Amino acid sequence: MAAESEPRLIVGNNLLDRSTRKVVSGLTRMGISLLGSRVLYVRGRKSGEWRTTPVNLLKYEGKRYLVAPRGHTQWVRNMRVSGGGELHIGRRVEVFTATELADEEKPDILRAYLKRWKFEVGMFFNGVGPDASDEKLLEIAPGYPVFQLG
Fold first, then answer.
1. What count of other Cβ atoms lies within 10 Å of the Cβ of residue 105?
2. Which backbone phi and psi does 93 adopt, to 5 degrees?
3. What average pLDDT is seen over the chain?
4. pTM, whole model, 2 decimals?
5. Which DSSP category does 143 fall into?
6. What mean pLDDT comes out for the span 98-125?
7. What are the tens digits of pLDDT across the range 89-104?
8. Domains of the chain listed by start with CATH number
9. Rounded to whole angstroms, how far apart are CA atoms 12 and 33?
10. Cα(130)–Cα(107) distance, rounded to whole angstroms?
11. β-bridge pairing 63-67 and 37-43
């Protein structure tokens, strides 16, 4: 049995998931953003080599955020070590720094993220939607890393 303190992680590696990520990454690399999609480049914490994954860039109250709907994934662990990375859309590259938010700072960000992308990421939130109470969003916050970009 898994310990309660283990970080939440969803590894989606079925055919549909891989196909969807390839399509979104491919379109974004061509310069076509799907509702804010970007390709995240972050240095591997052990190899130092660039690792990539498609992400949704959330703009909320004049600030920008990356939310990890699948939990404490490899890109999240790499971001914690590197402190930043690059966002790509077509030929445009933006270098950024990132600061991870504390759990108590996440409810409004998670709500905004779910309002924008629940159709895409709702399955990773176990029935929690944008209409959830602050208390419920605070309860699930430890399982959803959020980074503010600078």
1. 13
2. -125, 130
3. 88
4. 0.86
5. G
6. 95
7. 999 999 999 999 999 9
8. 15-149 (2.30.110.10)
9. 22
10. 10
11. unpaired
